């Protein structure tokens, strides 16, 4: 019998599993750097899996109840809204966000609210000591006798704490700081993150214990570590916010137990993260008389409609190249709207410096704010304020038409609830007609 020749060791990407014949610095499949590792394959034929008797027989789906997978509230309404009603027992939740955005503050308050119901909560911090976590908990008034703190970076010790305390909720801050002694790699490496997350999630599923894992982000805003981490967990939530403002948004990118289009709104304060159930007033300036260059639009954050004020300032300039400064809106869309105003409405701003900004630090990326930006620019150019109590919503096309936007009825219903009695949208006709109606000309 001929001897079976052993195949030479090959290389595999730890991120996507793509195989290459030689080592390269960047994976040709997923374009990730530093994930190609050597993998030796055994000689001869690959072993075949054998069938085993299942410990639990399969059941018809109609005979399985969902009582064990029901949500229970955390005590923070905005967080429950994002999670689909609360935390599901045995669920693995990955919470990511930039440094300093408020992840740890939100989680210590969540742990305190759950512990206030009498449940045992284990908060494991791999970045801070228990004394530092205690200081934050004292500042946010989150001290509870059933909230246990531990500062550990070893996976075996973390699992030992789980065995000893048997918590009803586990919070691990963060998964990139914990390492398994069996894995020959530094903490935060893809192999370590994969082993730590798999062990913690396995313990959560076996004990029917929900676990919240904090994940670091890269400079691109993605969760650091292998993509497998996002596949293993049940919920992927992201905390977003601007360093210059106190407003924080919590969004879900993946949710096996609810919708992914909900948004939780918080405000960072000295005492912690305060819920903002109705954030409408945060994005609209309060003034008695209208001023030129201001327009109100209704933006959609998840399922929540929010009024946002857009302000524009137009200043004549003698420079050969006029300035275009925007904040909170897309600069390319503002340039397009300036071209539409000049071509379709006769409003020439080529010899003017243009400044466009939103109030409250909110960022608008949807095209529904086009008409409001155009109205604010036209009002600033003519130095005439828009008619009061007007909510302007619509996408502007290059031919000067107003296109319809998603959830238009919901936007105008929210505007009516807030006291905006006049609505300007796609029914107004062209951009020229809409601007004439907004300015009262």
UniProtKB/TrEMBL annotation:
<dbReference type="InterPro" id="IPR014721">
    <property type="entry name" value="Ribsml_uS5_D2-typ_fold_subgr"/>
</dbReference>
<keyword id="KW-0378">Hydrolase</keyword>
<dbReference type="InterPro" id="IPR020588">
    <property type="entry name" value="RecA_ATP-bd"/>
</dbReference>
<comment type="similarity">
    <text>Belongs to the RecA family. RadA subfamily.</text>
</comment>
<keyword id="KW-0479">Metal-binding</keyword>
<keyword id="KW-0862">Zinc</keyword>
<feature type="binding site">
    <location>
        <begin position="97"/>
        <end position="104"/>
    </location>
    <ligand>
        <name>ATP</name>
    </ligand>
</feature>
<dbReference type="InterPro" id="IPR041166">
    <property type="entry name" value="Rubredoxin_2"/>
</dbReference>
<keyword id="KW-0346">Stress response</keyword>
<dbReference type="InterPro" id="IPR020568">
    <property type="entry name" value="Ribosomal_Su5_D2-typ_SF"/>
</dbReference>
<keyword id="KW-0547">Nucleotide-binding</keyword>
<protein>
    <recommendedName>
        <fullName>DNA repair protein RadA</fullName>
    </recommendedName>
</protein>
<feature type="short sequence motif" description="RadA KNRFG motif">
    <location>
        <begin position="254"/>
        <end position="258"/>
    </location>
</feature>
<dbReference type="InterPro" id="IPR003593">
    <property type="entry name" value="AAA+_ATPase"/>
</dbReference>
<keyword id="KW-0067">ATP-binding</keyword>
<dbReference type="Pfam" id="PF13481">
    <property type="entry name" value="AAA_25"/>
</dbReference>
<dbReference type="InterPro" id="IPR004504">
    <property type="entry name" value="DNA_repair_RadA"/>
</dbReference>
<keyword id="KW-0227">DNA damage</keyword>
<keyword id="KW-0234">DNA repair</keyword>
<feature type="region of interest" description="Lon-protease-like">
    <location>
        <begin position="353"/>
        <end position="441"/>
    </location>
</feature>
<dbReference type="InterPro" id="IPR027417">
    <property type="entry name" value="P-loop_NTPase"/>
</dbReference>
<feature type="domain" description="RecA family profile 1">
    <location>
        <begin position="68"/>
        <end position="217"/>
    </location>
</feature>
<dbReference type="Pfam" id="PF18073">
    <property type="entry name" value="Zn_ribbon_LapB"/>
</dbReference>
<comment type="function">
    <text>DNA-dependent ATPase involved in processing of recombination intermediates, plays a role in repairing DNA breaks. Stimulates the branch migration of RecA-mediated strand transfer reactions, allowing the 3' invading strand to extend heteroduplex DNA faster. Binds ssDNA in the presence of ADP but not other nucleotides, has ATPase activity that is stimulated by ssDNA and various branched DNA structures, but inhibited by SSB. Does not have RecA's homology-searching function.</text>
</comment>
<keyword id="KW-0238">DNA-binding</keyword>
<keyword id="KW-0863">Zinc-finger</keyword>
<comment type="function">
    <text>Plays a role in repairing double-strand DNA breaks, probably involving stabilizing or processing branched DNA or blocked replication forks.</text>
</comment>
């Amino acid at each position: 019998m001929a001897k079976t020749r052993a195949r030479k060791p090959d290389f595999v990407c730890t991120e996507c599993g793509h195989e290459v014949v030689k080592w390269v610095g960047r994976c040709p499949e997923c374009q990730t750097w530093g994930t190609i590792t050597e993998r030796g394959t055994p000689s001869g034929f690959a072993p075949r899996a054998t069938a085993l008797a299942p410990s639990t027989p399969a059941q018809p789906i109609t005979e399985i109840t969902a009582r064990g997978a029901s949500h229970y509230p955390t005590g923070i309404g905005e967080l429950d809204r994002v999670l689909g009603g609360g935390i599901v027992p045995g669920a693995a939740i990955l919470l990511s966000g930039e440094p300093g955005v408020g992840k740890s503050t939100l989680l210590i308050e969540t742990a305190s609210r759950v512990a206030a119901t009498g449940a045992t909560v284990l908060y494991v911090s791999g970045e801070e000591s228990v004394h530092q976590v205690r200081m934050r908990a004292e500042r946010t008034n989150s001290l509870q006798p059933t909230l246990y703190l531990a500062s550990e970076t070893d996976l075996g010790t973390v699992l030992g704490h789980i065995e000893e305390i048997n918590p009803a909720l586990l919070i691990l801050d963060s998964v990139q700081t914990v390492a398994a002694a069996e894995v020959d790699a530094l903490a935060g490496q893809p192999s370590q993150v994969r082993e730590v997350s798999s062990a913690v999630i396995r313990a959560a599923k076996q004990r029917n214990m929900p676990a919240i894992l904090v994940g670091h982000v890269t400079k691109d805003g993605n969760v650091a570590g292998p993509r497998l981490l996002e596949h293993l967990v049940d919920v992927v939530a992201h905390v977003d916010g601007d360093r210059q403002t106190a407003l924080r948004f919590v969004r879900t990118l993946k949710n096996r137990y609810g919708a992914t289009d909900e948004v939780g709104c918080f405000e960072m304060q000295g005492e912690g993260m305060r819920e903002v159930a109705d954030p409408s007033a945060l994005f609209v300036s309060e003034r008695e008389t209208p001023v030129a260059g201001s327009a109100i639009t209704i933006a959609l954050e998840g399922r929540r409609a929010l009024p946002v004020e857009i302000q524009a300032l137009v200043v004549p300039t003698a420079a050969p190249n006029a300035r275009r400064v925007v904040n909170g809106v897309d600069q390319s869309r503002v340039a397009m709207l300036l071209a539409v105003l000049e071509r379709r409405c006769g409003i020439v701003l080529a010899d003017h410096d243009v400044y466009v900004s939103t109030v409250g630090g909110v960022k608008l990326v949807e095209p529904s704010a086009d008409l409001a930006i155009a109205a604010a620019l036209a009002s600033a150019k003519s130095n005439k304020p828009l008619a009061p109590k007007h909510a302007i919503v619509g996408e502007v096309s290059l031919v000067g038409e107003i296109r319809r936007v998603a959830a238009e009825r919901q936007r105008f219903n929210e505007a009516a609830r807030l006291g905006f009695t006049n609505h300007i949208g796609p029914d107004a006709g062209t951009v020229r007609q809409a601007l004439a109606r907004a300015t009262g000309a």
